[in-house]
Amino acid sequence: MKTLTKKSVSRRNFLTGTATIAGLAAASSALPISVANANHTETTDKLPDFIKWKKRSALIVHSSKTMETHRTEIGSSLITPIRHIYVRNNLPSLTDEQIGNRKDWKVSVAGVKNPKTFTLAELQTLGQTTIATVLQCSGNGRGWFPHKPSGSQWQTGAAACVLWTGVPVETVIKACGGLAKGAKYMTCTGGDAPKNLDPKKATMERSIPLKAHKDAILAWEMNGVDIPNAHGGPVRSVTPGYFGVNNVKHLIKLDFTAKESSVRYMKSSYRISPLGKKGSQYPSCWEMPVKSWVTSPSQDGKVKSGKVVISGVAFGGTKKLSNVKVSLDFGKTWKTAKLVGPDLGKYAWRQFVYETTLKPGFYNVATKASAGGKSQPELRMDNRRGYAHNGWKDHSISLDVV
Amino acid sequence: MRKLFFFILISLLPSTMGFADPAKLSAGKEIFNGKGMCAGCHVLKDAGANGNIGPSLDQLKPSIDVVKSVVNGGLGVMPAFGATGMLTAKEIDEVSFYVASKAGK
């Protein structure tokens, strides 16, 4: 097994998830030479101006507007360095000129007894808290779906663990005299719709079940700095445990509504539908399922035999993480990993470590996390747009131990 | 395994190989800058397009199949030009041919 080349190893990994020649052909054409083999870091593509402050070498560039963090660049300090955090914006980020004075940024609040509009400066006088959450794109892991879904072919890196500071949504509701009657959803609207496009199609507006407002905040700070424009500053809604898209950037309105928003981003986009089907009758990308992956060592090099430390990240979405298991034999046997480092609450990810001794050879390293009585499935749940992948097999890595 | 890989390679050839067709390219360019309104949202040097809403096509360098599928069915804020009848199948074929031929060049 040692003689396998890197290329054949990654193809082999890929094969394990696909049963037919047709499936393989589809997968090969979708993928990915650019994802499976290339080291994007070495391309000459420069980062565009709106994120030129990011660390180019930490990112895999999928397009001029989408970048993910390399597996190993998640680091092992729990919180993801902001220069490494992935970039995925449905709409062009607002510029400093469009935003103007950040303290004067306005957020209107509706669906409450006394609707009001607050400036950022006013929101900052209402209250303050800090939370840690996993921010993850709904399509993280799309690169492994064999049916070639459109969109960025993310692997593991459209995810980050972030510290947010802001005012609890509960506090804002209280400042407005409480919820109005009939509220079933928390609906957030972004101010980044380009003016020349149809608002129904280009407004980022997301509704999530009302219960999710309890732990949500309106944030202005991210990992110690004002939320950069590319990540949705001056104010962003942070909805812990819910996929990234629900954390609305450039927030201009917080509403409590009886119905889900009717904009395209709510009604038809981000629906987890069977292959070949679409529509608002299918579940929206809301709560994230339990998930884990290895961040170190890298599968791109050889690992020295002897003592090896395997580490990674795991989280339970809206549920507290119970445990992480590691398999070195394609999922035949599993051993429990240690959870290490600070526990920043159920919405953050935990770091796990598995220390072992490895003889020379080829190993498949898979990880399986459990939370709220559910474990990661072996395979992905196939769906049209390639959302919510948490199957452990595709996320496993190959280690060439010498 | 090798045979299988070869088979896949062969099966991909028709979609990846494009032959120069000046009339089709020029028709595609016209749709790109005109009826398709692609230039409003995308960067494509060949068309002189500097739109900032969607990704730069010069950087993305999409295959003709990807362009066709996205122009037909839409993606995110991008309209479904085929499904809604904004472009005909022939026009989508032409504009996709043009984009796949010129992106990144």
What key phrases describe this protein's structure?
heterodimer; A: 402 residues; alpha+beta; Sulfite Oxidase, Chain A, domain 2; Immunoglobulin-like; five-stranded mixed beta sheet; 14% helix; 31% strand; globular; B: 105 residues; mainly alpha; Cytochrome Bc1 Complex, Chain D, domain 2; two-stranded antiparallel ribbon; 2 strands; 52% helix
Radius of gyration of chain A, CA atoms, in whole angstroms? 21 Å
Task: Using the coordinates shown, work out and report the CATH topology of the largest domain in chain A.
Answer: Sulfite Oxidase, Chain A, domain 2
> What is the CA-CA span between the terminal residues of chain B?
35 Å
Q: What is the strand content of chain B?
A: under 5%
CATH architectural label of chain B = Orthogonal Bundle
CATH architecture of the largest domain in chain A: Alpha-Beta Complex
Runs of chain B in which pLDDT lies below 50 for 5 or more consecutive residues are none
Class from secondary-structure proportions of chain B: mainly alpha
CATH superfamily of the largest domain in chain A: Oxidoreductase, molybdopterin-binding domain
Coarse morphology of chain A: globular
| Overall average pLDDT of chain A | 90
3D shape of chain B: globular
Radius of gyration from the alpha-carbon trace of chain B, in angstroms = 14 Å
* Protein chains sharing the most extensive interface: A-B, 25 and 25 residues
Helix content of chain A: 10-25%
Please characterize this protein's 3D structure:
The complex is a heterodimer of chains A (402) and B (105). With 402 residues, chain A is of the alpha+beta class. Chain A folds into two domains: 88-267, Oxidoreductase, molybdopterin-binding domain (Sulfite Oxidase, Chain A, domain 2); 291-401, Sandwich (Immunoglobulin-like). Chain A has helices spanning 6-15, 21-30, 32-37, 96-99, 120-126, 169-175, 199-202, 264-267, 392-395; strands spanning 59-63, 66-69, 87-88, 106-110, 116-119, 129-136, 159-168, 185-190, 205-209, 217-222, 225-226, 236-238, 251-257, 291-296, 302-303, 306-315, 321-327, 335-336, 338-340, 350-358, 361-371, 374-375, 397-401. In chain A, strands 15, 17, 18, 21, 22 and 23 form a six-stranded mixed beta sheet that branches. In chain A, strands 5-4-13-8-9 form a five-stranded mixed beta sheet. In chain A, strands 6, 7, 10, 11 and 12 form a five-stranded antiparallel beta sheet that branches. In chain A, β10 and β11 (225-226) form a beta hairpin. By secondary structure, chain B is mostly helical. Chain B contains five helices and two strands. Chain B has a two-stranded antiparallel sheet with strand order 1-2. In chain B, β1 (43-44) and β2 (49-50) form a beta hairpin. Classes of the chains: A alpha+beta (402), B mainly alpha (105). Chain A binds chain B through residues 8, 21, 24-25, 28-29, 45, 48, 61, 63-66, 90-92, 150-151, 194, 196-197, 201-202, 264, 269, and chain B through 1, 4, 7-8, 11-12, 15, 40, 43, 52-56, 59-60, 65-66, 69-70, 73, 75-77, 79.
